[in-house]
Automatic annotation (TrEMBL):
Keywords: Hydrolase, Metal-binding
Upper lineage: Bacteria, Bacillati, Mycoplasmatota, Mollicutes, Acholeplasmatales
Pfam families: TatD_DNase
Organism per entry: Peloplasma aerotolerans
Example of a GO MF term: metal ion binding
InterPro entries (UniProt xref): DNase_TatD-rel_CS (IPR018228), Metal_Hydrolase (IPR032466), TatD-like (IPR001130), TatD/YcfH-like (IPR015991)
SUPFAM superfamilies cross-referenced by the UniProt entry: Metallo-dependent hydrolases (SSF51556)
Residues annotated as binding a divalent metal cation 2: H125, H149
NCBIfam families, per database record: YchF/TatD family DNA exonuclease
GO cellular component: cytosol
Recorded superkingdom: Bacteria
Protein name (database record): TatD family hydrolase
Length: 255
């Protein structure tokens, strides 16, 4: 079985067919999906979905895109919900906006400190910001863990992330023709440090690129990792599922 460790099923793209999407995921071997919060509304929606669907779990956080309109004040109460398994999506994004970097760092560090306090893992967003994100986390080395979601840097940065105590999240882009750095990362990173994700509805793998992504398509990420590492599909699915259960404390291991 597979765990899709990062999906935005709490967005409007799934309002009308969430049950069908989850059924399709199970048909294709996905046993559990972690629904990712980004602001107050999506955090609440993630929890609602997790409460009403056994295979779903939730995270709550403030994504860097929402730091100008959302505070972290509501998070601590939500972390008491039974099926909340991580803090995030949080981090830094210097691709879309750079003039609020001070605010981004402030909100990010608040969530790091909340992770230290609650001992929950972090879902880290880094876009054009690995070094800045790394420097924010470095003072907390040994106190926090989590995943660098949708990893998009190079092998050296992957090693630095792992040295901090984090996993590497691999998504649909690993199937793209020009994903040279990501291929290098996967080939040269021990599978015990890798998680598989979709980032649904975004970043659909080949052959679905450009269409709505779904948890069912996690299988294409697993297949590509197996190909690159010269392992069997089952070996990759078993190990990444074990990694997900270990990091997020998802309960009984299913293989």
């Amino acid at each position: 079985m597979i765990v899709d460790t990062h999906a935005h099923l709490n967005t409007e793209e799934y309002v009308h067919d969430i049950d069908e999407v989850l059924e399709e995921a199970q048909i294709h071997g996905v046993s559990k999906v972690i629904v990712i919060g980004m602001d107050e509304a999506s955090n609440q929606r993630a929890i609602e979905l997790a409460k009403t669907h056994k295979m779903l779990f939730a995270t709550v956080g403030v994504h860097p895109a929402y730091v100008d309109t959302t505070t972290t004040n509501h998070l601590e109460a939500l972390l008491e919900e039974e099926k909340v398994v991580a803090i995030g999506e949080c981090g830094l994004d210097l691709h879309w906006k750079q003039d609020n970097i001070k605010k981004q760092k402030e909100i990010f560090i608040q969530q790091i400190e909340l992770a230290v306090k609650t001992k929950l893992p972090l879902i880290i967003h880094t876009r054009d910001s690995f070094e800045e994100t790394y420097q924010c986390l470095l003072p907390y080395k040994g106190q926090v863990t989590g995943v660098f979601h949708c990893f998009s840097s190079n092998l050296e940065d992957a090693k630095r992330a792992i040295d901090l105590g984090f996993y590497i999240g691999i998504d649909g882009p690993i199937t793209f023709k020009k994903a040279y750095d990501l291929v290098d990362v996967v080939k040269n990173t021990d599978l015990s440090y890798i998680l598989v994700e979709t980032d649904s509805p975004y970043l659909s793998p080949m052959p679905y690129r450009g269409k709505r992504n779904e948890p069912a398509y996690t299988k294409h990420v697993v297949k590509k990792i197996a190909e690159l590492k010269k392992m069997t599909y089952r070996e990759v699915s078993n190990q990444t599922t074990s990694n997900a259960h270990k990091l997020f404390n998802l309960g009984g291991l299913e293989t």
